[in-house]
Amino acid sequence: MKNIYRSLSLVAIMLVMLSRCAFSDKYKNAETNIRLNQVGFYTKGQKIAVITAPKDKAFSLKTLSGETVYTGSVLKSKFWDQAGEHVSIIDFSAFSESGDYYLQSGSAQSEPFRLSEVPYNDLLKAAAKTYYFNRATTELHEKYAGIYKRPFSHPDTAVMIHASAAGDFLPAGESIATPFGWYDAGDFNKYVVNSGISTYTLLAAYEHYQNLFDTLQWNIPESNNQRADLMDEILWNIRWMETMQDTLDGGVYHKTTTANFESFMEASKANGQRFVVNKGTAASLNFAAVMAKTSAMLQAEDPLYAQKLLYRAKAAYNWALTHPNAEFKNPVSNSPKYPSIHTGEYGDNHFQDEFFWAGVELYLATMDNQYLSKQAMSEFNQFNVPNWSTVETLGLISLASSELNNHLKKKASDELMILAELLISEWRQSPYRVTINKFVWGSNAEVMNQSMVLLNAYRVLGNVEYFEAAVSGLDYVLGRNATGYCFVTGFGYLSPKNIHHRQSASDDIEAPIPGFLVGGPNPRNIHQDCGRDEYAIHLPAKCYLDETCSYSTNEVAINWNAPLVYVTAGVESIYQQRFSN
Question: Active site includes 555?
Answer without folding.
Answer: yes
